[in-house]
Amino acid sequence: MELFYFLVIICLSFAFSGRCSNDYSRNDFPEGFVFGSAISAFQWEGAVDEDGRMPSVLDTVTHSSNGSSGVIACDGYHKYKEDVKLMYDMGLDAFRFSISWSRLIPSGRGPVNPKGLRFYKNLIRELKRHGIEPHVTLLHDDLPQALEDEYGGWIDRKIIDDFTAYADVCFREFGNTVKFWSTINEPNMLAMVSYGVGLVPHIHCSPPNGMVNCTKGNTSTEPYIVLHNMLLAHASTARLYKQKYKNKQNGSIGITCFAFWMIPFTSSEEDAIATQRAKDFLLGWVLHPLVFGDYPNVMRRIVGKRLPCFSEEESDLVKDSSDFLGVIHYRTTYTADLSSPSQGDFLSDMAASIIRMGFFHEIIDVHPWGLEGVLEYIKQNYGNPPVYILENGRPTNHHSSLNDVGRVEYLHAYIAAVLNSVRKGSETRGYFQWSFMDLFEFIDPNYTYGLYYVNFSDPERKRSPKTSAFWYSCFLNGTTICPQELKNISISSSPGFSSS
């Protein structure tokens, strides 16, 4: 409780120091609106060779140059009690994490690993004991390597039954205490990036489209096949949950979608059309089947026979399969027309240049109206479903100052954007900052998203709070501090704000 009382005193000292141009507090949000933070299993747990866990596809392809790796990662497997205490001290309502399929069912199918089962039961129990609601993602990129080796993973429809059987174990074992399930993390991004241009974790592509030298893949068909199988796996899992568990467990199930907001690069009609086409290819690719039972017309027209078709039964299965939509949003981009004869791959099918898209290691500008745009677009075009913002955050250099005011500016602006959207009628019901602590970032380990700094050179993986941790905690406890007021203070070195 020492940290709680310290925060009350410090937050109150800022409460009357001035008003922000977009002043708000968490009390302005509807009753029941959830604020949390998030991690993923592979980036947080470590212990990749312990207690029966077998490799995932991420174990096979990732490494880093700064001393961090998935082998230990943040050592959350051993430090979860300390981390939950930090969450409690901060004031989180909820915590989003993923389950490592290859820790729970090491071979992807077959016997359950009792030690993996015990770990997740203990983690969930610890969260509930501290009054923190678990939001569980079943798969966050780390497909069991055994299934990838056996039949190619998401390329083969066998994955649908295996994923559903894995989910059945999770619902049976954890569903009495877990009420919020997300099936698959950002399937649109995984299909496009990992099977379209050959990046991790699957590294599939075909010349001349890869960003790396792939040894396998077909860029013209595989992104579409993979996304199709992911939607069917999600829908099969959702049907199982609703038929077998929902009435007695009273939970809900959804899927997440990666969502850039895109605006035309110029005022030309061509760029305006390209922007809508990009929205259909990147957002509609997932959302259209979930709401209408089929892919957007523009995709069916351009991709043609390379785009898998839903049978009537499959269309009915996918349509309305989600109780909520998880939105993952980081940045806004410009979109320019690239209309030309398609080379038969996803990006040339989309025929739009995503300008300033970059990768996550580039510092993200603060454009909160982009998140408002995403939420308004979903409201207007897809029936205003319940939405949870399941990832939103800003990277900073991992070894920069703990006084991460740039991240505070981002969070302050984007949470205000969520409030604006709610006031305009969006059914957004929760916001999860990414990420609770610095994680193992396998794309570029030099840039991290955490509220807590993790020293990956320290065998103990010491956690140290950043200014953003202090700011978010004050917000969660009712006081919203203007970011500019934090620029010349060192909150993180205060003896009252705990490290672990």
TrEMBL record:
Q: Which organism is it from?
A: Eruca vesicaria subsp. sativa
Name the protein family. Belongs to the glycosyl hydrolase 1 family.
GO MF: beta-glucosidase activity; thioglucosidase activity
Gene Ontology CC entries for this record: vacuole
UniProt cross-references to InterPro entries, sorted A to Z: GH, GH_1_N_CS, Glyco_hydro_1
Question: What catalytic activity does the UniProt entry give for this protein?
Answer: Hydrolysis of terminal, non-reducing beta-D-glucosyl residues with release of beta-D-glucose; a thioglucoside + H2O = a sugar + a thiol
Record's function text: Degradation of glucosinolates (glucose residue linked by a thioglucoside bound to an amino acid derivative) to glucose, sulfate and any of the products: thiocyanates, isothiocyanates, nitriles, epithionitriles or oxazolidine-2-thiones.
Q: Which UniProt keywords apply?
A: Glycoprotein, Glycosidase, Hydrolase, Signal, Vacuole
Q: Does the keyword Signal apply?
A: yes
Chief place where the protein resides: other
As given in the record, the signal peptide range reads 1-17
The protein in question is named Sinigrinase
Q: Might you give the EC number(s) for this enzyme?
A: 3.2.1.147, 3.2.1.21
Q: Which segments cross the bilayer?
A: none
Q: Tell me the compartments it is located in.
A: Vacuole
